[in-house]
């Protein structure tokens, strides 16, 4: 039997290739960042060609580090930043425009117009999502409206749309497909039929001819070319659903929180569609082959790890992201300072695209250590809001939070997260569960792992943080946080762009 499974993680700030063994342990990894392009305030773009070049580089690098070839891989899976939108020429393979990133807010006016009198919930019953700049459908519409001649070419099937999974699968295999998890983030798919919905396509203004075929998350899409020649491309999962899968949250009620560029809390709701009454998203968790789809509730935070990156790159307060913890530890608390990073508006549970970031509670006492601590605490407080919403929707209080992603290496953040939730926070042995989930799904498709119960046996905890903050102190800080959040709202005027 071939020895390994590879996963390509095409993320918001970088692309990675991780190789796993049969125990689900990392045996090789290579990673490369790509440019963040900011043409205007609120606009965020990526160069899809640069990303494809980087993906090829990290695949080659990971195989070289392990001194193996494609013949040693049973399959490759793909996980990706989800709503980022790319349209490319079917004949030449060239993108017609930079990819529009999920954080981008240029469609703010469009989503308001689409909502009309019914507002942001106009399509929620069909697709599970509120009208927001976050999702792919309005981004496609923006491209069709602003790139000369693109709509006619789209209607003729001469250009193709994809989220980053589709782009990579097309580059690797020549097939134009996506999986149900990524399709569920476009605002164009019916959660019940798991197919593109004609009424949504007509309302948002997207031609069906440019859309990929929707497939399960775990199945063989085709064989790869290039450095992965002959390897089955056998899974695709949006990054947060991949993390749910990698954390082996296969039973209803099981969930996880991933701390990456953004932060995302997902809870498995089984084969049942649960519509949130508290600002959460209803989404597809995963679909294995011919088995029924599994659904999830999701709380989405736009800015988490990217805030640390912003402090590094835009403010220059630290030289590397890992320095944020040491700087934050130079002070005992936040000094009364709260940072609400609504750079792309507020996501769950508010869905206020006209919000913008604030630093509240500033006094002459505040120094860069307090700012650093407020930066870390922002992610924990936003997570607290999501947990509260989850509990309100489910009627069940959280008892433990499973966590993963790069920010879980920050001990100060993880302890503060446990403190503000009042429950233990547990990190697995393999914290990079987005890649692991894509590897698991690909392995299931080719028989590398026999079933999901075998995957459960691989999960093990590596660290646990228990709450140590008094309830009255926790509640006092939370009230201040909520006041700071209110200060961000309705910042944009009607005539502002993004």
Task: Give a description of the structure.
The structure is a single chain. It is built from 16 helices and 21 strands. The chain is α/β, with parallel strands linked by helices. The strands form 6 sheets. It has a 7-stranded mixed sheet with strand order 15-16-14-13-19-20-21. Strands 3-2-1-5-12-11 form a 6-stranded mixed sheet, sandwiched between helices. The model has no long low-confidence stretch (mean pLDDT 93).
Short note summarizing the structure:
With 498 residues, the chain is α/β, with parallel strands linked by helices. Helix content is 34%, strand content 21%.
Descriptors:
498 residues, alpha/beta, 16 helices
How many H/I helices? 16
Detail the poorly predicted runs: none
Please give the largest β-sheet: 7 strands, mixed
Radius of gyration, whole Å = 21 Å
Please give the alpha-carbon distance between the first and last residues: 52 Å
Approximately what portion of the residues adopt beta-strand conformation?
A: 15-25%
The total count of strands amounts to 21
Approximate shape = globular
* Mean pLDDT over the full residue set: 93
Biggest sheet, strands in spatial order? Answer: 15-16-14-13-19-20-21
Structural class of the secondary structure composition? alpha/beta
Helix coverage percent of residues? 25-40%
